[in-house]
Specification:
The protein is an alpha/beta fold and about 375 residues long. It has helices at about 30-35, 50-60, 85-95, 110-115, 125-150, 155-160, 165, 195, 210-215, 240-245, 265-275, 275-280, 285-290, 315-325, 325-340, 355-360; strands at about 20-25, 40-45, 70-75, 100-105, 180-185, 200-205, 225-230. It has 16 helices and 7 strands. The relative contact order is 0.14. The protein binds iron/sulfur cluster.
Length: about 375
Amino acid sequence: MSKSKPRRIVRKSKPQRPTWPTWPTLTPAQREELLCVTDGGHVHTSGGKDSLALLSAVQRLAGQQFEKFSTAVHAILPDVEWPGVTELARRQAEYLGYTFETVQRSQGSLLEHFEQRGKFSDAQNRFCTSDHKTAQCLKVITARDRVLGPATAGSSSSANIDLPAVLGPWADQIGPDTRVYLNILGMRADESPARAKLPELAIDEKWSTALRAIDRGGAQIGTRRRLVLRWLPIHAWTEAEVQKHCDEIGDGDLTHFAYHLNVKAMEEVMAAEGRKAVLQKPQDELRAILRSPGGVRWGGMPRLSCAFCIFAPKPALALAMLYNRDMWGTYRDLEARIDFSWHNRQKWRIGALERDLGSGLIQLGGLTTAGQWNM
Ligand code: SF4
């Protein structure tokens, strides 16, 4: 019997994944060009101070082009955000001339999502942001893209204006029918080491159908090609610059009260009555102390969005708990039900907040500096 020849396994080489360029910072001229050549975009807003500064910055930078970027999109996280956040986000956007749109995950809230998955999100598995914010907000771009259709000569800014000034040699990859959108966010370098590494402008590969076509050998898929660029116009702004800028918009009354909670008053009541006794007070009484006049401006929560953010330092979680006792109780009960630690690596539970604050292991002070959120 003749031996059969061993079969040669021919492995198809995968198409090389291109490395897309990034732009660490843009010059004022490049920013102007970017706003001019792109087909439009939307500004993400959480209702927080960075969002307010961002909305204002984009409005100013866009100038004549503002209409293309005048949609502010807010992802509602109904059972986890600070009270009044969505209403404030609307007020901020409309004050600055934006059209305000809200989006929300239809498959359930974030707390329901935690429960379904049997765990909280974390840095490696950040479904709170990806599923409840990013994916929802980018639906707005998809919808706009559907309305505009593919670019044709004369219909698109990007088809008519020279992109190389912004995109360099890579601009050759963009076909004449490609629409270019800006996904505009308020992330800043001084928020965390990870955010410091982000470039001001980058290609949002996941949402760029134009790039997916290039990935597979250059063949065009479908009739629409879309390039989405993620732009962080206030990336270089410091915390102090953001606060100052926010104080100058609308007489300074367009920032959330959580930033200005009276921590000093709470510390004084704790010193006088005992920490554990204060924790027995009803939610309304705790709120009244924290909203009492005489606090330090910007002396409360350094960040807004979810009251109990997975990246928040313990003092911020404790302050959020004092104001949002009922919401914290929901988290504590959920944590007990799914038997999963809030800070999984540290094996620290959000249910321990009350105990650790009551025993003095967590202090409320020192919340105003940037960089405490490890996001
Ligand atoms: S604020 Fe924190 S918990 Fe909420 S979505 Fe963002 S990263 Fe997740």
